[in-house]
Queue: 4 jobs
Job 1
Amino acid sequence: MDWSRTKTILIIALLLTNSVLFFVLYGDRIGARTDYENNQNQLTEVLKLLESEQVTVTTDVPTQDLVMTDIRLTYETYEDETMIQILLGENFTNIDGQYLSKDAGVRILETQELVYQLLNPLGGYVETDVDQATEIAKNFLDSVGLQYSSVAHWVTEQQDDGTVLVEFRQIEDGYFVENAYMKLIVSNTSVIELRRKWFGAIEVQDTSKIVESPAKALFRVLSEIDGNTDIQRPVEIESMDLGYRLISNILTINFQEGEPMPYWRFRTAQGDVIYIEAQTE
């Protein structure tokens, strides 16, 4: 191996990375360019760096200044049993916290997550059409009054037993809001399970945050990819979204409400999801 040549290549790569880092962090303070020109130049340099590291971005990248209003989120709960009645009908019984009709049952986990299941689904391997499953799931949500503007399709995946998982996530005013989801299992032509955890009340605050430029967020993605052994190069970033993320920990595992932080969310063509806390100015 030609160690001299290898060292030269590594030095050039390091200089390139450092120069891009300097430009991204301080380029907007140099010269008399407009903010738009600075953002475009920064984005161009970062995209070049990512491509040199076998990371391509195939989605549209926001270029405008981004201001996010602070909000407070509260999870929906099911004490009034309205949703249970919609799913099971009027004739159901409550047995030790489990609601049962002749065909299905509903459980409420930690007051926040609703789990609906058919009692006697077909057993064994059931081949379910992936494309049809998405429409079946959407029609089911529509039939129980859960298909509305804040519901966004996230993913449809075939399971090992032939069923299909169809997942929807919450969006508000164009921003994703996590962690909120509706996960449906479709078997043949029926929804056999629904798991729902959703934010109800969204309280808009009087304050807001100016979020860092997309170029800076993309630059920080590279270190996340390097530190994740499950993500293999080449990497294609097929979506880049800005939104709110409410993080739980051991002290707040059962919390009902909270104030989320702005996050960038990146999804790769391989299905990997990377979250970058959106640094604010």
Job 2
Amino acid sequence: MKSIAIGADIGGSHIYSAAVDLSTHKIIEGTGFTQQINNKAGSIEILDGWSKALSATMQQIDVARLAGIGFAMPGPFDYPNGIALFERVEKYESLYGVNVSAELRQRLQLDENVHFRYINDATAFAIAEAWVGKAGNFDRMIALTLGTGFGSAFIDHGIPVLEGDSVPEMGCVWHLPFKDKIANDYFSTHWFTGTYSDRTGKKVSGVKEIADAAVTEAAANELFREYGSNMGHFLAPWIKKFDARVIVIGGNITGAYDLFGKHLENALHQNDIKVELLLSDLKEDAAVMGGARLLDESYYTKVRDLLRLM
């Protein structure tokens, strides 16, 4: 019985893969591997790096039981067909037009009976949180991943919602107008580092440095106040439309939740929003679990037709 699935989280600078036992809904101990990737390298180097991590995971399992590999993949990507469409995103652009399934299948020497399936990385995070995470007892949830980008997904009884009046186009919010730009420009790492530099003249590489500075620096504290308050006011109409019961938040920026969380909560309160805000415990395992769930055939039949909308 093919009861093992490999989940692969394709990050901006690494791949993390692990094997999941679909019968127990748990990652198999000792199967997790991370490989650093130069996202501006040529296609061969990138694919070789991805296959190195996947191969390391495969070596720890009985491959005869492997149902397939589920990828939590950033966009733009042709999710139904496994073809990379990265352009104007400053990462993995050398893969444009490459059939990832064909290339990796050859490198890993896997036959056609081992499926390769793909889903948006933020959606994979949301699926896992609804499946084995903190949103398991809620029917309608919004998931947010706060980091290099502003990831989001709307989930109803475990299934992503990508169409209809209750959700934005594509079932995510990063592209929606906010102030003079779009949401992604205000709720990603780039906003923190760019705005901090503009206001203080100091260059930093990430949000953690700003969070450390917030212990003594008013300018850093003000950034987190703006971030949380802006996010609450931005999200409020969509929380109401979707009638979300819980918001689960993950991503690197959640490490500074104690600095922006109260401002997010206050903004939601000002908009008369009552929703539970929970931080993910799954962390980096969430996207892997969500990708692996695509190899559960009963679940995949429910989401297969949604992939074309991502």
Job 3
Amino acid sequence: MTTGNSRYGIPKTTEIELKVALSDRLKHLREEARENSFEIYLYAAALRLRYMNKSTGNYTKEFHDWYAQNDLNQLFGRITSTFSKYAAAGEIVNFFGQQYKNGKYISQLPLSLRALYELAMLKKEISETALEKLFFTGGDDKEALIHPNATSADIAAFHNRSKSNLAKGSKSRKTQFNISLATIYVRKDIYRFHVKTGDHLGKVDLSDTERAVKRLREILDAEMFDVRDNLDKITTTYKKREDKAAPSFGLRVKKTAKKKR
């Protein structure tokens, strides 16, 4: 008796002969996946633009109701965390596809949702000239940082190094601003992920902390107050927990263990 879904089985031996037809098929599937993923990201960005209140960062009740009634958490995850990553990815795809140099670099963008999200965060803090250079340099061994297979970890690491370099030049400012005014804490469930699916479960996500710090900097006069965030350490821990919670983590650990034998 046949069981399971015939669509989701390893291809037959006759289908994986090392010929041009096979490589063409794989490339076509990759491009199809890329186009479909990018379109989903762009829809998420459009939804955020229309239904999110820019001053509060909250979505309308109409949007929340529609999201829940149509089980869109199955596609995007939670509105307050994962959906924001889809929207950010859509904005970066739109930027390089429509707004920057006639789409010159759109084919070089990574497909990964998390990588595109990290790229969107990086774009907020560096110039367009500096961003363009990363299609040619910035990665390991002097290779490009931004390419189709770039990972979120690589982009986040580059981002953290950039912020660290900026912080080194602010020692004189730290001696000038040396009276503690307040301490802000974030919920510990920022590091909470589903042990099987890898989905983020905490009430506060990394993007929430990033927005909070950004708002503080915008609200407080830099001539009177010095905001020193702990985002680097939080981001590093978050990425480690996120990576460990991913369904593929167990397979990667086993593969590494085999190599060491």
Job 4
Amino acid sequence: MYPQLCFAPEVLQVRPWRDEILDRLGFDPRSSYVEDYWLGVLGPSTVWLLRRFAAGFDYSPEGFELDLAETARSLGLGDRSGRHSPFVRSVNRTIQFGLARLSGPDELSVRRRLPPLNHGHLKRLSPSLRARHAAWQEAHQRRGDRAEAEATVEAAAR
């Protein structure tokens, strides 16, 4: 188990968690993939928090200070800062699902992009969402196969 936030400091330093592969191939927290599929796994408050982080990185790519009470209130989560407050639970869910990690007592490293759902995450979805995700995966795979085939043909033509 990863270390989680036990109390909320007034300000949290948010830094990017760099990952070459996810930064290139992952999903922006504001994407339809995240809304369609990650939302059912993480819950709305955690998805909104990830979107807030993404917006912060748009303005400050190397990181920023996040006023926790203000952010919690703006997300409709109140401004309590105890271990079981809705806001602290949302922060800890980002850690639990490998989307963030504590990198200091008041510093959080956050992935800029999210991976596709894994098998364990898919089990959390409703049957209809799992079926929709399977169709999405199949279509995504076909597009990838076509792109790979086109690149191979193009390289052979040179």
